[in-house]
From TrEMBL:
Protein's organism: Panagrolaimus sp. ES5
UniProt name for this protein: Carboxylesterase type B domain-containing protein
Length: 558
């Protein structure tokens, strides 16, 4: 019987598990390693602190508890004491002496949901670790526990981001014990995790903690870093607890209440917090606070970031499919424009599309007498430029494309060009392979998160991506791109070298049944949104007034 792996670290001995993939690859698994003291009691709404060393062997044989999520029902065992990470590594023989590059994954979930546990370890060992890498997944504080803020220095927020930084610092200390190369760490994340990955490159607090980054379907230049609801929802939490939000004793009072009381407080306004049909999709999130992130808007940070770290950015071809149709029917709240009930799909016509633009985007509080001209410009652009294949609902496709552009595409494209202009090495991919297992009946495109099973366990209720046949070839090519980039910053797969993004163009690799290098990704869209911001003085993708960038114009909508 094979003995369990034991690793001596600066914090004590860690005892893991052995794991063998169906292909016979042997890995060692370490689950639920605490990387910080529990952020409870007086440590609530504080930056994470180094964990206490353990005196006996730490049994790392099960995932740590997830963070408390919202809605709470997703992980009923969510806990404030959630700051753990998981480490998966190849089983190393005595004669092997090379150190392993490391990839650190940051999960998504809109900064209110998700955990490292849901991504498992079986598929990531097959699809990434087997290439000779260490892969780490981690938890961070979510919702009000991670992002509650007074909007000033009293309770500045960003605790979930500080958790990620503490995990990276902890890894610098323990990676050598696992034969990991602490100087060769790549961070990657998806959606909210992609935005966090992007943000982590913009603060001096992460200097020397990683070598390169891969933000997937998330950008620091999205309006979520200029979130108008963040202080409002923090205030709602305090008021639901009977605490004066303006009190100088706010911090002292709020650490006295239990986690269950905070959960109940948030439950009282979840319908308000998770409203469908709003342009801003994220309501608890990071913020430019003047401490962790020094300047606003985030574009200034990109221009002054550490350009020595290469970055690989990417999107899928229709991100907002995930938000278009309500998959739960009557079990969840449906909207007119987002999470549309399946029975309502035939009613999504030109009027419905135009209503979204005029009522949600072309707000008179922002655009005044120019609101109609703004709406006309948006409607005309999408009617002219969106192509619909087969007999899919044309206006549903247009609506979904618009939501994809505002929330994902334009921020990512701008970020790529801004980084290139600052002298950073930037590469870009577009994942377009439609796996029949995940295809929506309403769209001929790839949805937000459909690419993640190329690396991890598929979400509950969905089948895993097989490593054979057509989907296996796509998975192999996509994983090879990430593995090569993580090893040495070389963005290439199957013999194809990705060209560098320039300030003028975004050449990219299309990940599909056939790999293609294309010249420039969606130039007409980024040009349209840039001109729209210039002409009308406000930019929806970033949430920033181009006339008065220091102002949070979106606050006026509430």
């Amino acid at each position: 019987m094979t003995s369990l792996p034991l690793v001596e670290t600066p914090y004590g001995v860690i005892e893991g598990l052995n794991h063998e993939t169906p292909e016979g690859f042997e890995a060692e698994i370490f689950l639920g390693i605490p990387f910080a003291k529990p952020p409870i009691n007086e440590l609530r709404f504080e930056k994470p602190q180094l964990p206490t060393k353990w005196k006996t062997s730490l049994k790392a044989d099960k995932f740590g508890k997830p963070a408390i999520t919202f809605p709470v029902r997703k992980f009923k065992d969510g806990d404030e004491d959630c700051l753990t990470l998981n480490l998966f590594k190849p089983k190393k023989t005595d004669e092997e002496c090379n150190l392993f590059p490391t990839m650190v994954y940051i999960h998504g979930g809109g900064f209110v949901s998700g955990s490292s546990r849901e991504w498992g370890y079986k598929e990531v060992c097959r699809k990434l670790v087997s290439h000779g890498l260490i892969v780490v997944t981690l938890n961070y504080r979510l919702g009000p526990f991670g992002f509650f803020t007074t909007g000033d220095g009293n309770i500045p927020g960003n605790y979930g981001i500080w958790d990620m930084i503490q995990a990276l610092k902890f890894l610098q200390e323990i990676l050598p014990s696992f034969n990991g190369d602490a100087s060769n760490v790549t961070i990657f994340g998806h959606s909210a995790g992609g935005m966090a990955t992007s943000l982590l490159t913009l603060t001096p607090e992460t200097k020397n903690l990683f070598a390169r980054a891969i933000p997937m379907s998330g950008s620091a230049l999205s309006k979520s870093s200029n979130n108008p609801f963040l202080v409002k929802h923090s205030k709602m939490v305090a008021e639901a607890l009977g605490i004066d939000f303006s009190s100088l004793r706010l911090r002292d009072e709020i650490i006295e209440v239990s986690a269950d009381q905070i959960k109940e407080a948030v439950k009282s306004f979840i319908p308000e917090m998770l409203r469908v049909d709003e342009v801003v999709l994220v309501h608890f999130s990071p913020r430019i606070d003047g401490d962790l992130f020094k300047e606003k808007p985030a574009t200034n940070l990109v221009c002054k970031s550490d350009v020595s770290k290469p970055i690989l950015m990417g999107l899928v071809d229709q991100e907002a499919i995930l938000f278009a149709v309500n998959p739960f029917g009557k079990l969840a709240t449906s909207g007119k424009y987002i999470w549309i009930h399946p029975d309502d799909i035939p009613n999504v016509d030109k009027t419905r599309f135009s209503d979204y633009v005029t009522q949600k985007l072309a707000d008179k509080k922002i655009f005044g007498s120019s609101a109609k001209d703004y709406a006309d410009a948006v409607i005309n652009f999408y009617e002219t430029n969106v192509k619909v294949s087969n007999n899919n609902n044309r206006y549903l496709t247009m609506l979904t494309q618009l939501i994809s552009d505002v929330n994902f595409n334009i921020p990512a494209l701008r970020e790529a060009k801004s980084r290139a202009a600052a002298g950073q090495k930037v590469y870009f991919y577009l994942y377009t392979y439609i796996n029949p297992k995940y295809k929506s009946q309403y769209f001929d495109a790839v949805a937000h998160a459909d690419e993640l099973p190329c690396f991890f366990d598929a979400p509950v209720g969905k089948p895993n991506v097989e490593m054979k046949g057509e989907e296996g070839e796509v998975q192999k090519s996509f994983a090879e791109l990430f593995v090569n980039f993580a090893r040495n910053g070389n963005a290439q797969t199957q013999g194809l070298q990705l060209p560098l993004v320039t300030p003028e163009n975004i050449p990219y690799i299309k990940i599909d049944k056939e790999l293609l290098i294309e010249n420039d990704l969606w130039p007409e869209r980024i040009n349209f949104w840039n001109k729209l911001a210039e002409d009308f003085g406000f930019d929806w993708p970033s949430g920033v007034s181009t006339k008065h960038p220091e102002k949070n114009v979106l606050m006026d909508l509430e």
